[in-house]
Amino acid sequence: MERDIQVARLSNLRIHGPPVEHHVPQGTLSVAPLRFGDVVIDPPILQAPMAGYTNYAFRQIVREYGGVGLQATEMVNARGFVWLDEHEAEHPDRLWGVRDEARPLAVQIWDNDPEIMAKVGRRLVEEYRVSVVDINFGCPVKQVTERAHSGSYLLSQPQRMYAIISRLVAACTPTPVTAKIRLGCARDCINANEIARVVEDAGAAALTVHGRTAADFFKGHADWERIADIKHHLTSIPLIGNGDLDSAEKVVHAFRTFGVDGVMIARAALGRPWLFGQAAAALRGEAIPPDPSLELQKQCMLRHYDLVVERFGVQKGTYLMRKFACCYAQAKYGSRMFRTKIAQVSSPAEFYDIVQQYFPQDISDSETL
Ligand SMILES: Cc1cc2nc3c(=O)[nH]c(=O)nc-3n(C[C@H](O)[C@H](O)[C@H](O)COP(=O)(O)O)c2cc1C
User: Fold this and answer.
1) Is the peptide bond before 174 cis (omega within 30 degrees of 0)?
2) Which fold has domain 2-283?
3) What are phi and psi of 104, to 5 degrees?
4) 139 catalytic per annotation
5) Are 71 and 282 spatial neighbours (Cβ–Cβ below 8 Å)?
6) Could you state, in order of their start, the residue ranges of all structural domains in the chain?
7) What number of other Cβ atoms are within 10 A of residue 162's Cβ?
8) CB 5 within 8 A of CB 141
9) 47 Cα to the center of ligand 1, angstroms
10) What's the CA-to-centroid distance between 53 and ligand 1, angstroms?
11) Has domain 294-363 been given CATH number 1.10.1200.80?
12) Tens digits of per-residue pLDDT, 172-230?
């Protein structure tokens, strides 16, 4: 499943709508913190759940740069959790670190059975003390939709969605339960407005919308006009917009033009964890801090590697770091050779050696060599 989603393009992110301003006029935008029940999300910029990516190490890196109001784990299979529990096995690997991490933190779960979801939600609240339980109604991969009738498949089953959310809300109270959806299953059956009302009526504390349909997967661009339209169908819960936000300017543009209460950033933050801080500064009306120098970006990547190894061990961590290292180098002059080399790395010594030799450098540094 992760392999499927990883083929999603990590570049060419565009936001649909009027052209983006390069300078954010100060004092013209007032953005309030979000509230999910008693949980305050300030700034209203959320780090998206991403299977295979938003593990403990990535969350830690993002937290260190600041500017993120709420972080999320990778999606956790609720049925798998229950099975492990019944067999007295360790809880899902994806919950590693969650108990001790800084708050606020959301754990995202998926399944189609209200009782199973409620059971897991209760455990997450009581045992893990998570800040928010988020439900995945957006995953488009076959293993989740066709095989498990979960994720975005449930967008075609509003009554089932209502049952899942209301049962989970009852089990988790007072911890807020939120829902993350796409616009619909396909372009010819977009039903996000109807689904938004179901989510709100069932007692969810917030709704996040990725502005594509499940059939779109990651093709085309997110439709922010449709995200904006959903706002008219919600009466009391915040709307968080998601899709193609890859700069501080686009985050400001999303708030100003599309009237969302919060935004969620996914792919663009993978090799740029400082993006949240840039967006937060822009929302405060401050100058947007420049990207760190390439030397500092390299240091950030090495810190990320340390955390990945702490989390997964040397061997698995080194393999896993291949894809993260590629994200850090992406769209930089000279990155192709680095990516080719790092894609085959298998030991820490090799990793450091390749980084030293091939990670893109600031022009001024390379000129002095
Ligand atoms: C590799 C990958 C894994 C993802 N895993 C999840 C997930 O576990 N749960 C979820 O709700 N969305 C998941 N998504 C979707 C993102 O959270 C987000 O909705 C989507 O990437 C659009 O936002 P973006 O344009 O900022 O990337 C994933 C996306 C990618 C690229």
Assistant:
1) yes
2) TIM Barrel (3.20.20)
3) -80, 145
4) yes
5) no
6) 2-283, 294-363
7) 18
8) yes
9) 10
10) 9
11) yes
12) 999 999 999 999 999 999 999 999 999 999 999 999 999 999 999 999 999 999 999 99
Evaluate: CB of 20 within 6 angstroms of ligand 1: no
Report the distance separating Cα 256 and Cα 144, nearest Å.
35
**Nearest residue to 179 (alpha-carbon basis) of 202, 197, 204:** 204
Pocket test for ligand 1, best of 1, 4, 5, 178 (most atoms within 8 A of CB): 5
d(CA 180, CA 190) in angstroms, rounded, equals 15
157: tokens are 């089953």
Give the span between the Cα atoms of 190 and 138, in whole angstroms: 13
Q: Which residues contact 251 (CB under 8 A, 6 or more apart)?
A: 45, 245, 263, 265, 279, 282, 283
Condensed to tens digits (0 to 9), the pLDDT of residues 55-68 reads 999 999 999 999 99
Catalytic residue, candidates 139, 185, 300, 327? 139
* Cβ proximity of 13 and 268 under 8 Å: yes
| Residue bearing the CA closest to ligand 1, atom 2 | 50
Task: In whole angstroms, give the CA distance from residue 283 to residue 66.
Answer: 14
Helix or strand (DSSP H, E) at 301: helix 294-312
The tokens for 22 are: 């390069």
Residue 356: CB atoms within 10 Å: 9
Q: Is 176 helix (H, G, I), strand (E, B) or coil?
A: coil
Instruction: Indicate which residue's Cα is closest to atom 21 of ligand 1.
Output: 266
Preceding peptide of 104 cis, ω within 30°: yes
